[in-house]
Design goal:
Elements lengths: L5 E3 L1 H8 L3 H5 L24 E6 L9 E5 L7 H5 L9 H18 L35 E5 L14
Antiparallel strand pairs: 1-2, 2-3, 3-4
Amino acid sequence: MPVKPESFDDNQVRHLRHGNLAAAFGSDFAGITLGESQRLPDERMHLIDRVLSFDPTGGRYGLGTIVAEADIHPDAWFLTCHFIDDPVMPGTLMYECCAHALRIFVQRMGWVTPDPGARFDVLPKMKATLNAGDRSPRPPRKPGMKSTSNRWGIRRTRDSRS
């Protein structure tokens, strides 16, 4: 897959929720169908709306960067039930936002499979750091997520060999 720095608008990211890589990334992905487990979640776990920057060779280690953005409104489900008097985005959802951004990065790199058992996962004992500024969405804000990596890998599990 040829890769270059680019961005993806709301409509392109929406196509990823339905597994349509060609509509999201272009004709190089025609005929590639994503299994359900590899698609971006929707509804309550709709945590990314657009990608402002995708750079396959960016970052400190030259392994790529992705900067994504989410539209978060004051009535978002996680704000109405998490610290009611001080609505903030829970840290676990911030990590999930980063995981969604990395999922888009991996898919755009062409690291996809039609295997329905394939999934994206964090490797155990891998260090991750989350730096969060103001997590309050008052008024509607667009928090950004920037993910970089110093290592990529593929691990086969028993589930994905069937």
